[in-house]
Amino acid sequence: MLSRRDAIKLGSAAGAALIFPTKQLASALSDDPSELPPFSVPLSLPPVLKPTRRTGDTDFYDMRIAESEHEILPGIRTRALTFNGGFPGPTLRAHRGRAVVIRQVNDMASPATVHLHGANVPASSDGHPMDPIAPGQSRVYRYPNDQPAATLWYHDHTHHLEGEQVYRGLSGAYLLSDPVDALLPFPSGEFDVPLLLRDAKLNGDGQLVFVNDDFMNRPTILVNGRPQPYFEVKRRLYRLRLINVSNLEVFKFQLSNGARFLQIASDGGFLRVPAVRQEIDLWPAERAEVLVDFRSVPAGTAIALQNVVALSENKRDILQFRIGGGASSSKPELAIPGWTGVRPPSAQAGIPGWPTRNPPRERVARRRRFVLRFDPATGEFLINDQGFDPNRVDARIDHGATEIWEIVNGDAAFGITHTMHLHLVQFRVLDRNGKPEPGHDAYPKDTVRLNPGDVVRIEATLDTHTGRYPFHCHFLDHATHSMMGQFEVVPRG
C-alpha cells in the first residue's frame, strides 16, 4: 500500500508531466539534497520593527522594498527581495484598537503590492494585485486592527509576479494581540516565537533559483531564512507561531520525541476549543499557534520538528530544539494534566479566561460553487474554467450577507492540490466531502486545503468593509497563472 507521501509524490509527478517540458520534468523529479547538514546553523529571529512615531491611537511605520543581499548559507551572500533588508521581513507587533499606518517605498525595478494576509482592511489598503506601487514610488497602507488577536503575515501580491517575488523573499510576520492575550497563561517575550517556513532552491553560487511550479526541485527548507537550523531553548513552555510562507510546500509537523502540541489558534486567531494534537497540517499561507512543553525535558536533549509528508528525506527535518537550562517565569504557566498523555483531555477546561469564539450563524443569502482545475492545453490554472480577469467580478455580495461557497478541486485526475484564500474575511469550514471538519481546522480560517477531488463548503459573513477583493489559490505559482477571481461587497439596498 502506498504511503501518503508516496501518493503525493506520484500525484505531483502526474501534474508535473503536463506542465513541464521533458528536460525540466527530469530536473523536478530529481532530489537535490542541500550540501549543508541539517542543524548546522542557529535559528535567526526577525527583528521587531519599531514605529517611527506614535499618536494616541495609531502607530506609524516606514518600510522599504528593495533587492539586497542576505546570508542564507554560511559565508555566502544571496540576492533576495526584502522588506527593510530582512529575509524574511521584520516582524510587526500590533495591538487591537490601535491602527497601524505603513508607508511602503518601492525601490525595486519591478512593481510591488503589499497584502496583509488574514486582515480585515479597507479595499484601498488590501494590496490588490492590480493596484501596485510603481518602481521608485510609495504607498500608504492603513490597517485598523479591528479584529481579534491573530498571527497574520504580509507579502507581495503583484499579479503575474507574486509567485516569484514572494519566493525571492517578500514576506514577513504581523502579530496582532488584544487584551485577551494578557489574561491567558501563555508564554510571552522570548518564549513567543514566530517561525516562517518555506522551501527554496539555491544554485552552486548560493543564489535563489525560481522556476514556476517547480515544486519537486526546491530541496532546501528555510526557517526564518535559515536552512534547517537549530534553536537553543530553555526548559520552559514555548508559544510557536507556525507560518507557511512557501509557494507550494505542504507540511505535516510532528515532534521527534512523540510529544504532543497544544494548538491554541488557527489562521484568524484563537480556536473555539484548544486541541491536543500529535501532528499539525500547514499548507501554503496557513498559520497555527501551538504550545510546546520543554519543562520536563532533560537538559542536553535534542528534539526535531519534522515534516512527515516531505517529498524527500533531506526535507524531513525542519528545526532542532536544543534544550538547555530553566528560567524564571513572571507569571504562572499553563498546566493541563494529561496534555502529553495518551488520552488528551478537554484543553479548554484547563485554560482560565479562554475566549468564546463562536462563528457567526446567520441566514444564508446565497450559495455559490467554484471549481479549481488545471488546463493542460494552456498551462493555466482556472476557476470555473476562467482565468483571472481584472475587469470581471465573479461574485457581488450585499454588505452584511452570509454566503456558503462550495469549492471543488477538479484535479483528481492529475493529483494536483490547491488551497482557497479569501481576502477580507475569516470563514467557517462547514464540511469536507460531506463530513464535518475537525474543530481545529474549521474556524477561524481564511485559507482552506483542497486535496485532489475534495469538495469543501465554507460559510462567510461579509459585514465589515465594502469594495473589491480577490479570492485565489494560495499555491502562489497557481495564482500567478490565473487561478484567481474577485468578489465585490456592495452597500445593501
Automatic annotation (TrEMBL):
It holds the Pfam family Cu-oxidase_2. InterPro entries: Cu-oxidase-like_N, Cu-oxidase_2nd, Cu-oxidase_C, Cu-oxidase_fam, Cupredoxin, TAT_signal. PANTHER family: BILIRUBIN OXIDASE (PTHR48267:SF1), CUPREDOXIN SUPERFAMILY PROTEIN (PTHR48267). It comes from Amycolatopsis regifaucium. Belongs to the multicopper oxidase family. This is Bilirubin oxidase. Residues 67-179, 231-296, 378-491 form the Plastocyanin-like domain. Gene3D superfamilies: Cupredoxins - blue copper proteins. It comes from the Bacteria.
